[in-house]
Amino acid sequence: MNKRVRRWGLILLGLSVLVAAVGLLALCTGSAGIPINDIPDILLGGKDTAEYSILMGIRLPRILLAMSIGGALSLAGTLLQGMFRNPLVEPYTLGISGGASLGVCVNILFEFYAVIGIVAYPLSGFIGASLVIFLVYNLNRNNQNVRSNRMLLTGVMISYVASSLVMLLMALSKTDDLQSIVLWIMGSLDEPDITLIKISCAGSIVGLVISYFFCMDLNALLLGDEEAANLGINTLRTKKILFITASFLTGLSVAVAGIIMFVGLIVPHFVRMITGPDHRILLAASFLSGAAFLTLSDVIARVIIAPLELPVGVITGIIGGVLFIWALSRKQVTL
Amino acid sequence: MVNEKMEEDMAKNVLEIRHLNFRYKQEIILKDISFSVAQGEFVSVIGPNGCGKTTLIKTILRSVVPETGTIHIQGQEVKTITNRDLARHLAVVMQTIDPAAMTVMDYVLLGRLPFFERYQFFETQKDIAIAHRYMEMTGIAALSHAKINEISGGERQLAAIARALTQEPALLVLDEPTAHLDITHQVRVLNLVNTLKTQLSLTILMVLHDLNLAAEYSDRLVLMDKKQGKIFKAGPPKEVLTQESIQAVYQTRVQVRPNPISGKPWVFLINPHSQEKSINGN
C-alpha cells in the first residue's frame, strides 16, 4: 500500500514539474522575446523596466488564469464523468457551458455588471450552469439505465437551445454589446481585470478542496448509485453538492474565459489512463494536467499565427478532438 | 408482557420484518409480510417473477420505502439509522456488479468505507488485513491486482462476496447471486456462502430463483405468492416445497421427490408431451 502512496506522490510531483515547466515556457513566449536566462535578473532588477511589467503585469496573470481555468474545467469533467459513470460527459457535452454562456450573455445585455460590479460575470455564469445541470439531472432522474446516453443527448439539445438563445440575444442587441459578446464567446484568456483572475484562481482551488471531501464517495459511485448507497454513502447529498461544485467551476470558467471546448473531456480521460479510476489521485492529477494543457494551448494560440492570436478554444478543440478520436480508436473507453 | 416478548425477539433475531405493505401505482406488491431471520440462519426467499422478492430486498436496503410496517436489523429500526450505520450491519451482493476499471483489491477495500472516520483518506493496515483475509476466504486472492472489468462473471460474484464480507456485517443479503452463472460457479458461490455461514456464523438472506438450489442450501424458505404479494408459506424446505404449494404459486405442474443424496425436496418440471409414467418411474 505504501507503494501506491509513493506512486501517487511521484505522479503529483511529475505533474507539478510539468505545470511549472509549461508556466516558464509561457512566461518567455510572446512578441517581446525574453530569453529564459534573463527572467531572474528582470524579476530581481526592479519594477521599473518594461520587461518586468510585461512579465508580471501581462504574462503572469494570463498564465495564472490559464492554469486555474484549465484546472477547473478538467476537474468539473472528472466530477461529472465520475457521477454519471459516462466517459463522454463533460461540461460542454452536458450543456452546462451553454447554460453558463447564456447566463453571461444576459448579464452583458442587461448590464447587471453595472449594478453589482464585475462579480456579475462569474455569478451569472454560475446561475446559467446550475439551471442547466438541474434540468439535465431532473429530466433523467427516473432513467434506470444510468450509463445510457439519453442524458448526454438531453445535454447536447440543451446546448443547442442555449446557443440559439444566445444568437437570439445577439440579434436583438446593440452593436457594442454584440462585439463584446462575440469576443467573449470565442474564448480568450486575455483578461484585463485582475479581480476576475483572482476570483478564478481562488474559486478553482476551493472547488478542488470541496471535491476532495467526496473523493471516497466518488470511488463508491463508480459502482453505481445503489451499490454506493449500500456502502453507506448518502448518494443524493453527495451528488447534489458535486453537481453544484461542477456548475460553479464551469460557470466560473465560461464567465471569465468564454467557451473552451474539450478540456473537461479529454484531460480526465488521459489522466485516468495513467492513474486509474481512484479519485484520490485522479482529482488532483486532472486539475494539474488541465492547468498544464490549457497553458500550453494558450502558448500555441499566441504564437501560431503571431502577431495575431487565435482564440484558445480553437486550439483545445482541435488538439482535444484529434487526441480523443485517436484514444477512442486505440483503447476501449471505460471509467 | 406481549410487548416485552416482541422486544426480546427483535433483539435476538438479526432481521425482523413485521407487517410490511407496499403498493406501486395502486398495485399491491407486498401485503402484510412478516418474517424473521435468526442469528446464524440461512433463509431464502423464493417465488415467481414479479412476486415482490426484489422489492422486499429493496425495502430492507431502503431504496424503497414501505407504506406501513417495520424492519429491524439487530434490534435497530432501519428507517431511523443512516446509510453508513446500515452498511455496518448489512452487506449486499447484487445479481451483477458494474464492471468498473478498478482492481479487485480496490473494489474489496470499498467494503471498509462504512468504517472510515470523517475525512479519513487512506485505508488503515487493519482494513487491508481484513480485505486480504476475505479475499483468501473467497478464493480470489490471486486476482487482487486484476481489473474488475477483466475477470469473469463468476469471479466478479466472488469479489462481490469478498467486498460484502469486508464490511463485517451481521446480515448478508444476496439478490439472486447465481442468476448469470454457469453451474460450476453457481455451486461454487453457494458452497462458499454455506461455508461462510458456518465459519463466520453469518446470518444470510438470499433471493433465489432456482428452487432446487434454494432447497439444498437453505435452513428455511419463504415462498412468496404473486397474486396478493403475500407470503404463501414459510418454513423448512420440506414443508414449503410441496407439489401443492408449488403448483398453486407457480401455476405449473410439477412433481416433488426427495433428492437421493441429501434427502431435501427436489422439484421436477413436467413436459406435457412426455409420458407421466416414465416420470413416476413405473
Estimate what percentage of residues of chain B fall within beta strands.
25-35%
Uncertain regions spanning at least 5 consecutive residues of chain A: none
Mean pLDDT across every amino acid position of chain A = 84
- CATH class category label of chain A: Mainly Alpha
Q: Largest interface, with Cβ-Cβ < 8 Å? A: A-B, 26 and 36 residues
Compute the separation of the termini of chain A in Å: 22 Å
Question: Structural class, judged by helices and strands of chain A?
Answer: mainly alpha
Biggest sheet of chain B, open or closed, and with what strands and sense? 6 strands, mixed
Q: Could you characterize what this model shows?
A:
The complex is a heterodimer of chains A (335) and B (282). Chain A is mostly helical and 335 residues long. Chain A has 15 helices and no strands. Chain A has helices spanning 2-28, 39-44, 50-84, 96-110, 112-116, 120-139, 150-172, 175-185, 194-213, 215-221, 225-230, 235-257, 263-275, 279-303, 312-330. In chain A, helix 4 packs antiparallel against helix 6 and helix 6 crosses helix 12. The model of chain A has no long low-confidence stretch (mean pLDDT 84). Chain B has a domain at 100-168. Helix content of chain B is 36%, strand content 26%. Chain B is built from 11 helices and 12 strands. In chain B, strands 6-7-8-3-9-10 form a 6-stranded mixed sheet, sandwiched between helices. A 4-stranded antiparallel sheet of chain B has the order 2-1-4-5. In chain B, a hairpin with a 2-residue loop joins strand 4 and strand 5. In chain B, helix 5 crosses helix 6 and helix 6 runs parallel beside helix 7. The longest helix of chain B has 17 residues, at 183-199. Chain B is globular. The chains are: A mainly alpha (335), B alpha/beta (282). Chains A and B meet through helix 10 and helix 11 of A and helix 3 of B.
